């Protein structure tokens, strides 16, 4: 979500994120994604939370075939790409500055016959939400989008707007700080939230949320 360039010298342990590409074998496809840390910062590299969410989707716990899916703060687009490869119709979103980069990754990794099932579009949380009508999506995906406290109100507003009674939200994240726990507390004001997966090796949690009025499983 945040297009924040970081100083490479401050984060030597994350030097692999400065590589210009990353490759994965997911959804029975070899996926090669461009990365551009220097230009777009955290939005243009693949984080563990995205990989773990993709692995979770591969498990088949969530039936994606024919589902209407939106990914928020997509960054490189890995999660949305995998969802599309698993049979979903996907809207992959991020802020305007990331769209050209994101579109190139989608074009490179979605087979020609499935390109029509994927749309890349601009979505800044909390803004112009009328362009995304409530109830348009069965599943909302977000990987490592819970990290900037100043974005939490807009993110919560966006999740509430997009979610109808049967919409399922899957958030994949590392709980780093107390503010991340506070986000989950705020989310629970409007949603029923439970942890559905934990990757202990990467310390990544996946939370499932539905509006409190619904007990429907996807």
Automatic annotation (TrEMBL):
GO molecular function, one term: methyltransferase activity
Listed SUPFAM superfamilies: S-adenosyl-L-methionine-dependent methyltransferases
Transmembrane segment boundaries: 40-57, 69-90
GO cellular component: cytosol; protein-containing complex
Presence of the UniProt keyword Heme in the record: no
Subcellular location: Cytoplasm
GO biological process: methylation
Gene3D superfamilies: Vaccinia Virus protein VP39
CDD domains: AdoMet_MTases
InterPro entries noted in UniProt: Methyltransf_16 (IPR019410), SAM-dependent_MTases_sf (IPR029063)
Keywords: Cytoplasm, Membrane, Methyltransferase, S-adenosyl-L-methionine, Transferase, Transmembrane, Transmembrane helix
Superkingdom as given in the UniProt entry: Eukaryota
Primary location recorded for the protein, binned into one broad class: cytoplasm
A family per Pfam: Methyltransf_16
Catalytic activity, as annotated: L-lysyl-[protein] + 3 S-adenosyl-L-methionine = N(6),N(6),N(6)-trimethyl-L-lysyl-[protein] + 3 S-adenosyl-L-homocysteine + 3 H(+)
Similarity remark: Belongs to the methyltransferase superfamily. METTL21 family.
Protein's name in the database: Protein N-lysine methyltransferase METTL21A
Annotated source species: Cyprinus carpio
Upper taxonomic lineage: Eukaryota, Metazoa, Chordata, Craniata, Vertebrata
